[in-house]
Write a structure and sequence with these properties.
Length: about 160
């Protein structure tokens, strides 16, 4: 299994994780599809979203795969009045990752990062390892530590 930039960064920080591969269906990159292929609870498979705020610029939100981002909450916690998802064509340039393989670990630049409070419900969660078809199983505490994430409410109720 190939080590990604995200995995190498965790190795250099001495953070424990497990790489888990799955078959990619290019027509369905959804978190629910990934969870089904991993035979895991969709609430434990987190997706990494790249947003832009009207005041602070680019920031990252990490939310459970079974939830929808609340843009008003995301804007507020990040110090913005408004926030919107960045265009898909911008993701690679901003993060170094592609859609369906965007990891919150090891992005080209360190962006303010926010993780949904549901992460603390689990001993470990799954996040993209930086390429399609590869997830990282990691403790939420370790992910928070390595990304400098702030725990907050980010999803619609």
């Amino acid at each position: 299994m190939t080590k990604t930039n995200a995995a190498r960064l965790l190795d250099s920080e001495g953070i424990s994780y497990e790489l888990v591969s799955y078959d990619v269906d290019e027509s369905d990159l959804s978190a629910s599809s990934v969870a089904a292929k991993l035979h895991q609870d969709i609430g434990q498979v987190f997706k990494t979203l790249v947003l832009r705020g009207d005041k602070t610029g680019v920031f990252i939100c990490i939310i459970p795969g079974n939830k929808e981002l609340d843009l008003k909450k995301a804007a507020k916690v990040s110090g913005n009045k408004n926030a919107a998802m960045v265009l898909m064509k911008e993701i690679l340039e901003l993060t170094g990752y592609i859609r369906g393989g965007c990891s919150p670990v090891g992005m080209k630049k360190k962006y303010p990062t926010y993780i949904d409070e549901n992460c603390i419900l689990y001993d470990h969660i799954y996040i993209s390892a930086g390429i399609r078809g590869l997830q990282m199983k990691i403790s939420p505490d370790d992910l928070i530590l390595v990304t400098g994430s702030e725990i907050c409410s980010l999803t619609q109720t």
